[in-house]
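As noted in the main text, all predictions were made from sequence alone. Below is one such record, for Restriction endonuclease subunit S.
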Amino acid sequence: MAKTLYDYWFVQFDFPDENGKPYKSSGGKMIWNEILKREIPEGWGFQTIEELGTIVGGSTPSKASEENFSKNDIPWITPKDLSQNIGNKFIARGEFDVTEKGFKEASLNILPANSVFDVIKSSNRLFSY
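Prediction:
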């Protein structure tokens, strides 16, 4: 279902217009985008992920030291937490929090509220952004 929806909306550009009709096949205006070398809906543009926000790589404090983790400290979200959050729009904290010691040891970052998280798997490693 998700693949079909993606195809209709972002390949065929037949997402629902303001009247609930398929945009392109109902005469929605298309314009040529030189960067993408194809037509796209009027009002759409092209931006890289870097232009949309700040990319921050994640890391993990040493799990060998129990002093790095707690249940009530600095909220910390892992790829596992995100994978278990399917169907929810927001996540406030993960299974574990990190302590000040763990925070400093792993050079973690505090991200602003409403940040977007993504997990990218490359080779056999997980990266959380």
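Residues 2-11 form the longest helix (10 residues). DSSP finds four helices and seven strands in the chain. These features were considered when defining construct boundaries for the mutagenesis experiments described in Section 2.9.
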